[in-house]
Each structure stands twice: as structure tokens, then as C-alpha cells.
């Protein structure tokens, strides 16, 4: 195995990984979930959710910069003590394993339900996990470098797709907005927040992130980028298909891309879109696999940098198949269980961590 | 699934040998435990094709249908 012990990634590279991992989850999930509860005003949810996200990000950033060079597990032990810290780490491990199983299955199902309709889910799942296993043996820095390229592809692809989607934009689909929309919009912010909560697993490997002298700009860049990108995507999908249709679709953004036409014939952008989305799915699966491996390393105090990759990936393969018997089960689980699980572990815990560290005068 | 089990067995054999050679006992024990657990999930799914899925179990726990 390659020795990558001293290789760190920059905070910006970590944020690029974050932007890519929330990309597919955002495309599949947020528009349909928010459109169901907030209708034509659902695009506002990505702005309103910042009221909760920015303070959490500030607290998380302060804590992680203060404890730079220490893993999330070490921080939990320092702040909460050995017993509570270890218990929280084990709970985190279970949460991340459940997300790894969920997103591995989604990565395979996304292909079988769009372009490889006749393909075997097991085979696609195996290929995704095999590729993850091969690349992860070279360490986090390789994933970060591959991800930079994937990030460029994602941005270029979204820019092209958004240009065509906005040609069909209908302002009457995203208006009117009135005071009656306040409660549904506030209610629908749960869904973008549930996805933004993946910022916390990013700091599981806080010891692998090299912070510069000025970090505030990177936090501002990341927050502005995801907000603008998600706002444009939401406006484009709802402005093209309308909220009632979006709420009923399994993959609303893919359907919108399929409907793009140039000179009265299909533009064929769906294949390009799916191939780049698959790359983003690879980063997503690799990221959560790395998080699981690092948590196991920290909890059991192992020597290897990314230990137990083969059994973790083998378990992920079987667990992803055991997760659900149909795509409907995945959708229900994502809608009713995942948001609350993510908010508890991804947003509430960093706040408790920051407040406890502040009370104990560690920050 | 059977092919994945065979691959897991073959790769585990080589990786465990290198772990034992490097005297990383704790990692080897965890490796064996996790590999057995992964294989057990796979065998369970092959033997009981009509299993209740993880998502269904959790949804049932919270009374969501």
C-alpha cells in the first residue's frame, strides 16, 4: 500500500469535495422534496436555510480551526471526555455507514433507472465499489486531485444545462410569492439543510486538512457557490416543469434535461449529464468510504492510513443490496428518515460540540 | 453475490497474510470480524431471498408506510 501518511489536502480541496458530494444528492432530492411542501415558492428554501446553516458553519469552522491537526474523533474525546466522545464516534460511524450504503445503492440505481435500463444493479454497484477501492488505496490526496477535475466537469455541465433550461423558463411557475408561503418555505428548509449537513463528515479527517492563514474567504466562497448553484437549479427545474410536476417526479432534474430541445429535436444532453453525475457519485461513495475507514482507524487506534478497505467495501456491497428491495423504499427512507438523522448528526452535534468547548474555555 | 463472496475470500487471504507478517494483530482481528460480518450479510441474503430490507425495518419502526 502507498504511504500517504503525510499527505494533506487544502481546505479549498476539502470544500470542492463537499460541493461535488452534495451535487447529486441535491439534484435528485431537494427539488422534489421542497416542491411537495412549498410549491412554487420552494426555490426560496435554499436561501432561507442559510439562516440555520451559516451559524452552524461558523461554529464548526471555529472548532475545526482551533483543533487543526486533530481528527474529529480526537476533538470529541477532548471536548466530551473519553466515554461520551467514544460513544459519539461509534454513533457517527453507524450514521456514515448507513449513508455509504444509501448512496452506493443510489449510484447504481441512478444508472439503471436512466440510461442502463436493462443493466444489473449488482454489477454496476460492484464496479463503483471496485473503482472506489482501487483509487482509495492511493489516499485522500489522489481523491482530492481527481475531484478537482470532476468539479470542473460538474460546473461546465451545469452551466450548459442551465443555459438551455432557462430558455424554457416560465416566471409564472415560480410566482406568486406571498406571506402565505412563509410557513411552507420554513418547513421545506429541512431538506436542503439535511444535504448541507454533510459538511460535518468532511471534518472526520480534520487531521488531513491543511489550513492556511486566511480561511474565512474559503468558507464564504463555498457557501455562496452552493447557494447560487442550487438556487439557479431550483429556479430552472420549477420554472420549466412547474412545482406540481416536480413534486411527483423521481428524478426531476434528469427529466428537465431530457426535455431540452434544440431546433425542435432532442439536444441529447441527458447522456452527458448522467456520465458527469456518475463521476460525482464516485466522489460521493469514495468520500463516505474514506470517512468510515478513518473513523474505524481512530476508534480502534489502528496504524494504517486507510485500514480495512476490502471488508468495508464488501460489507457496503451487501449492505447496499440489503438496504431496500425497490427504489421506492430508498425514496421513502430518504424523505422520512435521512433528513432528521442528518440534521441530528450533521448540524446539531457541531453546535453542541462548539457550545461545550466554549463553556470549557477550549475555544 | 457468490462471485463477490469468492473475491472477498481471495483478497482477504492475501491481505491478511500481509497484515500478519507486519504483526498488526489488532487490524487483522478487526479485518476478520468485518469480513465475516460482510460475508454473513451476503449469505443471509442468498439463503433468504424474501428478507425484510433495512429501510423497511426502520420505516416500520417509526410507523411510516
Task: Describe the 3D structure.
The complex is a heterodimer of chains A (363) and B (65). Chain A contains 17 helices and four strands. Chain A has helices at 11-38, 45-48, 50-66, 72-80, 82-112, 121-136, 140-167, 182-188, 190-196, 199-202, 216-241, 243-248, 252-258, 269-300, 309-323, 327-336, 338-359, and strands at residues 9-10, 209-210, 261-262, 265-266. In chain A, the strands form two sheets. Chain A has a two-stranded parallel sheet with strand order 1-2. In chain A, strands 3-4 form a two-stranded antiparallel sheet. In chain A, helix 1 (11-38) runs parallel beside helix 11 (216-241), helix 1 (11-38) crosses helix 14 (269-300) and helix 6 (121-136) packs antiparallel against helix 15. Chain B contains three helices and no strands. Chain B has 65 residues and is an all-alpha fold. At the A-B interface, helix 15 and helix 16 of A face helix 1, helix 2 and helix 3 of B.
In short:
The complex is a heterodimer of chains A (363) and B (65). By secondary structure, chain A is an all-alpha fold.
Amino acid at each position: 500500500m502507498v504511504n500517504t501518511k503525510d499527505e494533506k489536502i487544502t481546505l479549498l480541496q476539502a470544500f470542492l469535495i463537499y460541493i461535488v458530494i452534495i451535487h447529486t444528492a441535491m439534484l435528485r432530492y431537494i427539488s422534489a422534496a421542497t416542491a411537495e411542501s412549498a410549491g412554487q415558492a420552494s426555490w426560496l428554501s435554499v436561501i432561507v436555510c442559510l439562516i440555520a446553516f451559516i451559524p452552524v458553519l461558523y461554529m464548526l469552522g471555529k472548532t475545526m480551526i482551533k483543533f487543526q491537526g486533530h481528527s474529529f474523533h480526537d476533538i470529541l474525546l477532548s471536548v466530551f471526555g473519553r466515554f461520551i466522545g467514544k460513544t459519539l464516534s461509534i454513533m457517527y460511524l453507524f450514521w456514515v455507514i448507513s449513508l455509504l450504503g444509501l448512496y452506493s445503492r443510489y449510484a447504481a440505481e441512478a444508472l439503471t433507472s436512466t440510461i442502463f435500463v436493462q443493466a444489473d444493479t449488482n454489477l454496476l454497484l460492484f464496479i463503483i465499489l471496485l473503482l472506489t477501492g482501487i483509487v482509495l488505496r492511493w489516499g485522500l490526496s489522489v481523491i482530492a486531485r481527481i475531484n478537482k477535475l470532476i468539479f470542473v466537469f460538474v460546473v461546465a455541465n451545469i452551466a450548459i444545462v442551465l443555459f438551455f433550461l432557462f430558455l424554457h423558463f416560465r416566471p409564472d411557475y415560480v410566482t406568486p410569492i406571498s406571506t402565505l408561503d412563509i410557513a411552507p418555505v420554513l418547513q421545506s428548509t429541512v431538506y436542503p439543510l439535511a444535504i448541507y449537513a454533510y459538511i460535518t463528515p468532511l471534518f472526520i479527517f480534520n487531521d488531513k486538512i491543511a489550513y492556511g492563514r486566511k480561511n474565512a474567504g474559503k468558507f464564504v466562497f463555498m457557501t455562496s457557490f452552493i447557494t447560487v448553484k442550487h438556487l439557479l437549479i431550483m429556479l430552472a427545474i420549477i420554472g420549466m416543469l412547474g412545482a406540481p410536476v416536480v413534486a411527483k417526479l423521481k428524478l426531476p432534474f434528469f427529466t428537465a434535461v431530457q426535455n431540452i430541445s434544440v431546433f425542435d429535436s432532442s439536444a441529447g444532453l441527458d447522456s452527458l449529464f448522467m456520465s458527469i453525475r456518475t463521476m460525482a457519485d464516485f466522489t460521493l461513495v469514495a468520500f463516505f468510504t474514506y470517512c468510515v475507514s478513518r473513523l474505524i482507524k481512530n476508534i480502534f487506534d489502528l496504524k494504517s492510513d486507510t485500514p480495512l478497505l476490502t471488508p468495508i467495501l464488501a460489507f457496503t456491497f451487501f449492505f447496499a443490496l440489503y438496504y431496500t428491495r425497490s427504489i421506492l423504499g430508498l425514496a421513502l427512507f430518504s424523505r422520512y428518515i435521512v433528513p432528521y438523522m442528518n440534521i441530528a448528526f450533521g448540524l446539531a452535534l457541531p453546535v453542541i460540540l462548539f457550545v461545550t468547548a466554549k463553556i470549557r474555555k477550549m475555544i | 453475490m457468490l462471485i463477490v463472496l469468492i473475491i472477498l475470500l481471495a483478497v482477504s487471504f492475501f491481505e491478511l497474510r500481509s497484515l500478519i507478517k507486519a504483526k498488526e494483530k489488532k487490524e487483522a482481528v478487526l479485518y476478520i470480524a468485518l469480513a465475516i460480518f460482510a460475508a454473513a450479510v451476503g449469505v443471509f441474503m442468498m439463503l433468504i431471498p424474501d428478507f425484510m430490507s433495512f429501510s423497511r425495518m426502520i420505516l416500520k419502526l417509526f410507523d411510516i408506510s
